[in-house]
Amino acid sequence: MDPVKALMHRHRELCARAVDPLEIAAGLEAHGVTDRTAARFRHRDVFALAEEMYARVPRDAEERGAPVATPARDAPESATGWALFALLPGAACGLAAVGIELSEGRARYAVGLGGALAVAFALRVALRYGPLRSAHHVGPAPRAWACLLVAYALFGDELMRAALSGGPDGLWGPSTATALGLSLAVAPAVYCVRLFAVGARRRLSLSRGLTEFTASVRPLLLCVVALYLCALGALLVGTAAVYGVPASAAAGALGALLLLARLLSSYGFTRAPLLMLGAAGATEVLSLASVFAGRLPGCDWLAAPVEGAVRAAGAGVVPLVACGAAAAVLLLHCLRVLSRASAHGAGAP
Fold first, then answer.
1. CA nearest 340: which of 246, 181, 215?
2. What is the pLDDT of residue 68?
3. First vs last Cα of the chain: how many Å apart?
4. Whole-structure pTM value
C-alpha cells in the first residue's frame, strides 16, 4: 500500500480543508510528524511531504484556479484600524493624567475614576481588534490576575513602604508615571507582535524544513521582545522624567510579562499565561500579607524576608522579582511553542 496515501487517509480532514501545502505541514507537525518521520516516506522533510500530499488532493480545475479566500479572522489585520486602536490606551491615559493635574478635591477622584474606565475600554478595543486578540476565549481568571498586577504596579510600592513603617495612615494616589508609561507601551506591543507574526509567516514560506524554520524564528522572537523592551524602557524613563520620579524597573518587568502572556494567548496557548500571571500576582499578595502578618505577636519572622529585601533593594524589588521571573519562564515557553510551524498555520495572527 502506498504509505503517503495511507498518511493522507489518516489526515484526510486536514488535506481536504488545506489551502496550501504550508497548512498541511503545520498540521502534520502538530500531530507529531517530524523530518525523521518524513524520511520514512522517502521525503527529505515535512515540507516536501506536505507538498506531495497537497498535490494529491483531488480538486477540480475551477477550484485550482480560484483565488484562496482569506479567513474571516484575518480581516481586521488587513485594515488600518488596529494600528489606530493601539494608540487609544495611551491617549486616554494621557488625557486622564492632564485632567487629574488640573482638578482638585473630589473632582480629582472623579476624573481619575473616569480616566481609569476610559483606559480600560480603550485597552479592550486595542486587544480585541488587532494582532494581540486572543485565538480563544480568555476566561476571567487571567484578566483578574492581570488587573491585580497592574493595581500593584500603581499602588503596591507605596502600600509596602507604609506597611513597613507601621501604616498605612491615609490615602495615596497611584503612580501616574507608571500608569502613563504602561498605557503608552500598548502601541509598541501591538506593532511588535504584528512584526513577529508577519516575519514568522514569511520564514515559514521560505523554510524547507522544520529545523530550519525553528532556527530562523527563534532569533526573530528574541529581537521582537528586545525591541519592545527598549520601547517600554524609553517610555517609562520619559514619563518618570516628566513627573520627576525614578523610573520603575518593576513596571518594565510587568510590561514584559503582560506582552508575553498576551502573545501566547493570541496563538491559542492560554495555560502557561494563566499559571505565570497567577504565580506573579500571588507572590505580590503574599509578600504584602506577610508584612501585615508580621505585626502579630511572635510572628516577626513572617515579615523578615520581605522586610530585608525591601530595605536592601527598595519596595520595587517584590514586583520586579515576581514579574521578572514569570516573564523569563514565559519567554522560554514562547521560544519552545512559537518556533513550531503548527503555531503559524492558517488562522494564526
1. 215
2. 40
3. 39
4. 0.79
